[in-house]
Amino acid sequence: MARITRRRVLKLSGAGLVAAQTGGLAAILATGRAPAYAQGTSIHWLRWADFVPASDVLLKGQITQECQKATGITLNLETINANDLQSRITSSIQSGTGADITMAIGNWPQLYADSLADAGDVAEEIGKAQGGYYDVSKLVATVGNKWIGVPWANVGGLVAYRKSWFEEVGYNTFPETWDALHDAGKKLKAKGRPIGQTAGHTFGDAPGWWYPFLWSWGGKEVEADGKTVVLNSPETIESVKFAVGFWKDACDEGGLAWDDTNNNRAFLSGTISATNNGASIYIEAKRKPQTYLTENGTPMWQDILHARIPKGPGGQFNLPGPFTDMLMGYSKNQKAAKDFLRWLHSKPVYAEWFASQQGYASGAARDWEKDKVWEIDPVLLPFRDLPLSGRLAGYAGPPNRRAAEVVTKYIITDMYAKAIQGMPAEDAVKWAHDEAGKVYA
């Protein structure tokens, strides 16, 4: 594998990005002829507009060009807002036409299992070659013995926070418990520096905060049988009551309408002190050090650290975001699509994308824990281990179709949002329990 240096990563992430040439891809092309792939075919790959812009530049430029040279396959890469992906997936399945390969987030693949091609030959091959998949990646990409996608990466959330601001209110490290964060948040909000979190209908940051929040109080969606809904519990009610006070005392109350971009902008503009997020805030601040400054005129990235969501009486958790490449069942180019996925997920090619992420994404397979990217910046190192410390939506049951439907309907998020907006905690929990019951019935 090509050696990944700080200079290469910064080159990918800086303004006026110039595509880096790699030893890995050069090795693929060294013979002067393409491997025996399904040549002369065009593949349509649909994915999100990445929160690390350098990665989209890399994929649309260098990777697309090298795909044609190495495989003979013409790559048509389309990127859209992540919140629009599910509507595109649904309409494509209904019409029987659309992208050959579509990116899925979390346990979305479970929703579409019957409409996806079996990708087991590719998934097993890649997993075996790269140290085996994390459990969270395999669970969302399989139904029984069928692989309904090829695991791509994991994007988890940590709390990005302004180190100096927390120190000003008496916290030299990020608060470890909810009571401590409530105390810090009240003091910060009094200074005009609230905590910023979404309670809106958005794909990542909303479930990424509220599911771990629920679990940390001992609440859960269903029993281990994956059928018995147990959301209406004393633990859940207590979590909702705390959330209401915490929101009023410590949070930017405009977060009820936020999507996954609003908290990034609020943090970088200096209007919030902390938010649960991927590494994109820090990466963007570091990419543009003269644009994002503290109130003292120093580069903001130097004042950003990351911490886990606080622990509660039920423990401390995160919700990993497995990314899966789904091979659509309606695709008429399935052989070529599989050939493309084999090439794209191979170590030399994937390493280029992985380096461009700079620590925003963990791999789907265990070998990427040892990648050189984790040696570049200790502030990003905590993101490496998130796939090992998370629970998937649907706990204590499996992350199956029903659990994915609960996520997609934002039932857990809305439970907290309704209470924040004035519904009694007991009523909000009963509403959510009944809604989840309809899904699991």
Radius of gyration: 22 Å
Mean pLDDT: 92
Q: What count of helical segments does DSSP give?
A: 17
The shape is globular
Could you state the order of secondary-structure elements as H and E? HHEHEHEHHEEEEHHHHHEHEEHHEHHH
Helix content: 40-55%
What's the CATH architecture of the largest domain?
A: 3-Layer(aba) Sandwich
Uncertain spans, ≥5 residues at pLDDT below 50?
1-34
CATH topology of the largest domain: D-Maltodextrin-Binding Protein, domain 2
Derived structural class: alpha+beta
Total DSSP E strands = 11
Strand order of the largest sheet: 2-1-3-10-6-11
Describe the structure.
With 441 residues, the chain is an alpha+beta fold. The chain has helices spanning 6-13, 23-29, 53-71, 85-95, 120-129, 135-140, 163-168, 178-190, 205-216, 234-250, 262-268, 280-287, 334-345, 347-357, 401-408, 411-420, 425-440, and strands at 42-48, 74-80, 101-105, 142-143, 146-147, 150-154, 158-162, 274-277, 304-307, 322-327, 362-363. The N and C termini lie far apart (50 Å). The radius of gyration is 22 Å and the shape is globular. Helix 2 runs antiparallel to helix 14 (347-357), helix 10 crosses helix 17 (425-440) and helix 16 (411-420) packs antiparallel against helix 17. The chain folds into 2 domains: 6-155 and 322-384, D-Maltodextrin-Binding Protein, domain 2 (3-Layer(aba) Sandwich); 158-319 and 409-440, D-Maltodextrin-Binding Protein, domain 2 (3-Layer(aba) Sandwich), CATH 3.40.190. It is built from 17 helices and 11 strands. The strands form 3 sheets. Strands 2-1-3-10-6-11 form a 6-stranded mixed beta sheet, sandwiched between helices.
